[in-house]
User: What shape does this take?
Amino acid sequence: MKILVAEDDNETAQFVVKGLRELGHVVDVTGEGREAFLMAGSEPYDVLVLDRMLPGMDGLAIIRGLRSMENTTPALFLTALDGVSDRVDGLEAGGDDYLVKPFAFSELAARVMALGRRPRQTAHTPTELAAGDLKMDLLARTVTRDSKPITLQPQEFRLLEFLLNNAGQIVTRTMLLEGVWGFHFDPATSIVETHISRLRSKLDDGFDQSAIRTVRGAGYIIDG
Amino acid sequence: MGDTGFWRSGAFRTAMLSGVLFVGLTVVLLALVYEVATSTIEHQISASVEARARTLEQALEEDDDTGELSNIVPAQEELFRYVENAEGKALIADLVPRQHIIGAEVLSTEQVQSGFVDGGQLDDSGIIGFGMTGRDGGYVFVGQEDEQVSELREALLQAGLVATGLAVLLSFLLGWWIALRNFRRIEGLNTVAAKVMGGDMAQRMPVSATRDEIDLLSAQLNRMLGQLENVMGAIRQVTNDIAHDMRTPLGRLQRKLEQAQIADDPAAANALVDSALDESRTMLDMFGSMLRIAQIEGGGLQKHFVRFDLSAMLADLADTYRPAMADGGRELVANIQPDIEVFGDRALVQQLFSNLIDNAVVHTPRGTIVRVTLEGRGNDWIAKVTDSGPGIDPEHRPYIFDRFYRADASRTTRGSGLGLALVKAVAEAHVWSITIANEAGLALEIRPAK
Assistant: This one.
């Protein structure tokens, strides 16, 4: 993927750029807001990684400008602001995801991948999701594995839907907390692990191979 | 007391101004009394001499015998008669006017000295007199010394001087006393303010029993100082807590990294680094929570408030927590009345109830039953998270919502000690009350504040 990283803190920028390049992405980097805006407007990027506070033009203004030019390149905000309303402001301006500093690189990588894979045109919402031998019918709200019906609780269904939407990508614990449960904090109770474990035991009942793979230190993945 | 400060004080100036006005008024009043009193007496004397003069004139018409006339108006001290018959012969002459004065006249001492012959008996005083010509010729004049008037004048003048002097003295003393009293009280406030600025937050302004405007001001300032003291205390407390609660994990972090540095076995070193990362994550979470609490307490959240279904949120939370709690040997029982809506910040309210459930999980043994209930109608609802655990000693109860407070300090439990502090901050931002119900375990109730 071709990624633009706009981050004025040199150390963070190098940390992000180095990591993304190691994953095989093409990465452009700038530390100035107006330059970031011009680059994002003139080059076709797959994902923008923008710091909220940039000299020259801040991240919110860049996204507002791009969106008003009907540029829909997915954007991830990096920010030191973890205010109650900061996330809302970022998403309202047209950002697609939000990551608070300091963050683990694996978290950033997973989110960038998820954004890059997101279909640009969502004109038709899919009625069916599939990965490997797993099939999910979103209208009938049924799940089958290798044609064997599996009964899921509503939250297990939501969890599997999120994983299938990101099939082939690592999904982190935090992404699940935000995407499935709407938690923007880390609860003391191990909610994610338990739900994954229950879902997994239902999906894997009678199969040799686990449908959901755990990537140590990073998250979960359903191979596409 | 700073001397210059006192003389320049507003109270002293006001007192002096009112003193001057008071004295001025006294002087005007005395002058009026003086004027009225003297003119009244002058009129009386004037009327009396006129009556005598007329009597003499009548008598002169009938008879111009000196003895007879003198009987009608006998000689008196301070009384001067002069009667002249038609031929110009003086019949009675206590003194002799140089000219015939006609009508009533008030004559000053100088006029008397120059206007009368034979002023031998005249004291150093003026005369009030009345003169008239007789119908058949002749001339009558009766005068009386105005000694009475001068005496009265003198007495009034003396009384006036004394009264004015007293007024000046009294108003100065009164002004000085009021000014001193006010100045001392303001000085008292100044002293307290200086002490507070010096760091002694326990100082309070003196309040007297009179409840005047300075007392009201002092009482209000005292309330403000009380608030400030609380806030300062809270800041000091939080600063101490941060210093204390952050040292421990930082110390552990450092120790782990040092051990990793000298570890021979790469696997052991990796494990230590992982553990150090966990430690740093915990600290970052604590900082995050503290910032969040501070932000919530700072206010201004209302602009993001929306109306949402609290019943649905709690039912979903129960489903979210139930499996993990079952795995930990605890049971979650939800009893949620549907369709109760609230106005608030969705994400924060969700965190509020998550924290309450987390709290019930972390601080209770296996086998505990955690109940989540919601009931009520309209804006009169009550949400409750109750556990059948050991509960909290009454002595700890007032503090469980304080930052970093842990009732079970001796026990090793997870958690930053910020969960319930955040709960309280969120509840207060929504104008909801949170109370500890008197039940066997820990039961926390949230409801709209009355």
Notes: The interface with chain A takes residues 284-285, 288, 291-292, 295-296, 301, 303-304, 316, 319-321, 323-325, 327-328, 345-348, 350-351, 354, 357-358, 361-362, 414-415, 419 of chain B (CB under 8 Å).
